[in-house]
Amino acid sequence: MNEQEKEKQFIDNVKKALDLSVENLDPGTQAKLTRMRHKALDAGGRKGFDIRQWFTLPVVGWATACILVLGLAIYMKQPNGTLPPLEDIDLLAAEDNLEFYDGLEFYAWLAEEEGIDAG
Amino acid sequence: MRMERPVMDDFLASVERQAFRMAEFATRNSDEALDIVQDAMISLVNNYSTKPETEWKPLFFRIVQNRIRDWHRKKSVRDRWNGMRNLWQGQDHEDDPIQNLADPKGKTPGEQAALKDSSAALDSALKTLPWRQQQAFLLRSWEEMSVAETARAMKCSEGSVKTHYSRALHTLRNLLEDHWP
Q1: What is the mean pLDDT of residues B80-91?
Q2: Could you tell me which residue, B81 or A22, shows the higher pLDDT?
Q3: How far does the CA of residue B166 sit from the closest CA of chain A (Å)?
Q4: Do B17 and A30 touch (CB under 8 A)?
Q5: Tens of pLDDT along B109-145?
Q6: What are the residues whose beta carbons fall under 8 Å from the beta carbon of B107, sequence distance 6 or more?
Q7: What tens digit of pLDDT does each residue of A18-75 get?
């Protein structure tokens, strides 16, 4: 047997011994490896490699774009494309009771009537 | 592309024990080896499961090698700090009772007897090798990876792989000549 054949024989023996050591791995270690494998697969599954994931992103993008376009359209529909009048914002931001504003027309009418009576 | 769980499961089942043994040889510690394999499994599943199945094996062993290398880096830092601490405290390694405890994986009388068994002798011989030689030898001879694949897995040059492998082979043949002449 020449040197090359001896080396090959040696490697074969090493491989057989290593394969045997793996086959005879103690059950406790094997069980731990199995648990770890399942844990890794579960984690991967949760993270998601689902093709649906790749559809979700464009859908969210489209929804955002639609909302923006709708918002812009509503804005443009305002007379001269202006923002709602500042008075409305004042009304909404005021701390006064909103019922007061609901009855504003009545108070205006009342003031008018009183003015007529006085006149 | 969706991960085919049974396919990945089969693949991991086919390599997990070899990876564990490799990490165990490198760290000489079963728990550390299990941690390394677990990290490698999670990394493969999370980052590379969409790659073609034929690429999984080299990728998996590359991750295992990365983890082993990280483990050795951390260990060398830990050892340096422990050495400095011992110097500071005026202690010698020989005085450290933990250092003097019998290594459960070492050569107790019972295990000396078991060394007659060639598998146990191989285990012991592999653990005497520097880890790069050991891993190059295992990847090349056991996993039958090419020099190029081994170099990629170990992040070193093909020349280094050849050197590590050749030195490992030479040492192992000397150490195991009683078992496998």
Answers
A1: 75
A2: A22
A3: 11
A4: yes
A5: 554 454 457 888 999 999 999 999 999 999 999 999 9
A6: B115, B124
A7: 999 999 899 999 999 999 999 999 987 665 545 555 556 677 788 888 888 888 887 7
- Cβ neighbours around B16 below 10 Å, total: 25
> Would an 8 Å CB–CB cutoff place B51 in contact with chain A?
no
CB-nearest to B9 from A15, A37, A51 is A37
Q: Cβ neighbours of residue B61 under 8 Å, at least 6 residues apart? A: B15, B19, B22, B139, B143, B145, B153
Which residues of B fall within a CB distance of 8 Å from A22?
Answer: 17-18, 21
Give SS3 for A20.
Answer: helix
Structure tokens at B67: 């983890």
pLDDT at A12 over 80: yes
Secondary structure of chain B in HEC code, one letter for each residue: CCCCHHHHHHHHHHHHHHHHHHHHHHHCCHHHHHHHHHHHHHHHHHHHCCCCHHHHHHHHHHHHHHHHHHHHHHHHHHHHHHHHHHHHCCCCHHHCHHHHCCCCCCCCHHHHHHCCCHHHHHHHHHHHCCHHHHHHHHHHHHCCCCHHHHHHHHCCCHHHHHHHHHHHHHHHHHHCCCCCC
SS3 A95: coil
Q: Is pTM beyond 0.80 here?
A: no
Residue B155: other Cβ atoms inside 10 A: 11
What is the distance between the terminal CA atoms of chain B, rounded to a whole angstrom?
51
Q: Which two tokens stand for residue B25?
A: 């040889």
